[in-house]
């Protein structure tokens, strides 16, 4: 019995309908019937009871189905493993993310990827605020899902996976905390707590020095860790812009997240090095894109 014939038999055993089996196997109903009759002649017994209203497995058919199903799954897994080895999708893949909501998407994609590529071990990491590009360059990470913009000659910018509205995290007793929204012009009225370690163009994009109307934005303390940013805000040392979704993941009794009414969205995209565009990197990127398209990102 050829592999294709096994697949047709198992599909008919699942569907119990010649037309649907033919459609799923992309053959004609006559071809399905021909294959089943050939198998029945070889075995010397009926595999299916056919009437004008239904198709049912016979006792012989049940035995054949149960015996073939486990072996067929092993064949599929062996073929998938061989293809993965042939494409170089083996070994270890290190994927990093910058924020909790990015991590949820990475974990979902990893579950799918591991099922498809069992010979490739995926390790997930949280990307540091300090020197986020360094681990890509030195090979510690293969792929990162991070806030944009990143514009480096040796770093490949993949597609933007999703965008999020911005908010301003402020001390709970600050006048801004009682507002429904804040504007970019309001940044001139409180010290701005910033982070260090990123490229200057990244910092200028997320932590501007002037408002759209040209008013100076005062500087507060700077740090290299997000939890330290929250601690400084909670202590009344200033305010800091962030993604509005942070309120769901990083709530504290001493801070409030106030949405911006006029700030641009925060974009999140994939990064990897041009020198590391391997088959396994590209395979994971394809899986992540597929996961992002099928996910309800609003519910992350």
UniProtKB/TrEMBL annotation:
Residues 1-58 form the HTH lysR-type domain. It comes from Streptomyces drozdowiczii. This is LysR family transcriptional regulator. PANTHER family: HCA OPERON TRANSCRIPTIONAL ACTIVATOR HCAR, TRANSCRIPTIONAL DUAL REGULATOR HCAR-RELATED. Belongs to the LysR transcriptional regulatory family. InterPro entries: LysR_HTH_N, LysR_subst-bd, WH-like_DNA-bd_sf, WH_DNA-bd_sf. Keywords: DNA-binding, Transcription, Transcription regulation. Signal peptide: none annotated.
